[in-house]
Design goal:
about 375 residues; alpha/beta; 2 domains; Peroxisomal Thiolase, Chain A, domain 1; two-stranded antiparallel sheet; about 35% helix; single chain
Length: about 375
């Protein structure tokens, strides 16, 4: 990476779930307090805050921090669909790497219970949304195409849910903490063929936070650093007409750039946290992240390669399918998990000997884009 070395030195998070009576400050403030405390610093030592959210309204970061007495310094609010929190992290690390600031706080937060259920609200001015496109339908089409092209069946998708729920059962921050069987996934109610309920991430609320420092500041503080080896943020390429629903082109591009920036390859990863909003998404991202060749992803799940104890565990946190997906909080929640994994703090879900981890989040697969945004971060102990 260009510029100064940047470290993650603290993380905090609340359990993702449904908090209908909570405000955005209620969701984020406990995570902020825990992140600052774990970094071993005082709130006044934060030079700037970057807050990612999608549905929090005006001045979300300011509303969160005023109750903690942390106003006066720069507060930047970032909206980039599901990549909002990770996009805020990207801006924070860039500000430190450039020498603009020494210490940054990154917040991710959203409250989906405000919409009283159903799919995410989308802009009807988009022609795809106006035609009836919602996220479950989009991913169902991806799944249908993939199963058809490579000769797999619905059980190959369902195994992703079984893995996710097994990991989530070990994570005190996960929305779902009960394992499920293949039979239970099959029996859950249909959503959009071939996807059923347990193959779709839940809606919910959540807050997460991480603290970043320059290498010099981290050494002075005595904090436990995890180093940012790569931070990539790209937008999708607008395409009219046909696009290949089984090839997430934005993730392919972002992964290539992230590996080059970090000076590593996919075989060097000890674990990954990926954007498994639906079971098919996780499989497609195995291939886009070069964990396997195209058409081979279901075999990695079936053979235990991506399970805890496997060659490259994917979503040891339980992922979006089990941990939950409160949009703006998701990317920061992934980064908190990666920090804890790389500092050996994950208890029963700990990836043994983890030294290098990747987080990946995408946002907004509509409006003629494979996705509107993609953020990939590579962290190393």
């Amino acid at each position: 990476m260009n510029g100064r070395h940047v470290a993650v030195v603290g993380a905090g998070m609340i359990r993702f779930g449904k908090y209908p009576d909570a405000s955005y400050p209620d969701l984020a403030q406990p995570a902020v307090v825990d992140a600052i405390r774990s970094a071993g610093i005082e709130p006044h030592e934060i030079d700037a805050t970057f807050c990612g959210h999608s549905f929090g309204g005006m001045l979300t970061g300011q509303r969160i921090l005023k109750g903690l007495g942390m106003t006066g310094e720069a507060i930047v609010n970032v909206e980039n669909a599901c990549s909002s929190g990770a996009g805020a992290f990207h801006q924070a690390q860039a500000a430190i790497a450039s020498g603009e600031i020494e210490t940054a706080l990154v917040i991710g937060v959203d409250k989906l219970t405000q919409f009283a259920g159903g799919t995410l609200p989308l802009n009807v001015e988009d022609h795809e949304v106006a035609s009836g496109m919602v996220m479950p339908a989009l991913y169902a089409m991806r799944a249908q195409r993939y199963l058809h092209d490579y000769g797999y069946d619905a059980d190959d998708l369902a195994r992703v849910s079984v893995k996710a729920r097994a990991n989530g059962a070990l994570n005190p921050f996960a929305q779902f903490r009960k394992p499920v069987t293949l039979e239970e996934v099959r029996a859950s109610r249909p959503i959009a063929e071939p996807l059923n309920l347990f193959q779709c991430c839940p809606t919910g609320d959540g807050g997460a936070a991480v603290v970043l420092m320059s290498a010099e500041r981290a050494r002075r503080s005595g904090a436990t650093p995890v180093w940012v080896r790569a931070s990539v943020l790209h937008s999708g390429r607008y395409m009219t007409g046909f696009r290949d629903f089984t090839l997430p082109e934005i993730t392919v591009r972002s992964a290539k750039d992230a590996y080059e920036q970090a000076g590593i390859g996919p075989d060097d990863l000890d674990f990954a946290e990926v954007h498994d909003a639906f079971t098919i998404a996780e499989l497609l991202y195995y291939e886009a992240l070069q964990l396997c060749e195209r058409g081979e992803a279901p075999r990695l799940v079936a053979d235990g390669v991506t399970a805890l104890g496997g060659r490259v565990p994917v979503n040891p946190s339980g992922g979006l399918l089990a941990k939950g997906h409160p949009i703006g909080a998701t990317g920061v929640g992934q980064l908190a998990e990666a920090y804890w994994q790389l500092t050996g703090r994950c208890g029963d879900r700990q990836v043994a000997g983890a030294r290098i981890g990747l987080t990946h989040v995408t946002g907004g697969g509509i409006a003629g884009f494979d996705h509107g945004a993609c953020a990939i971060t590579i962290l190393a102990a």
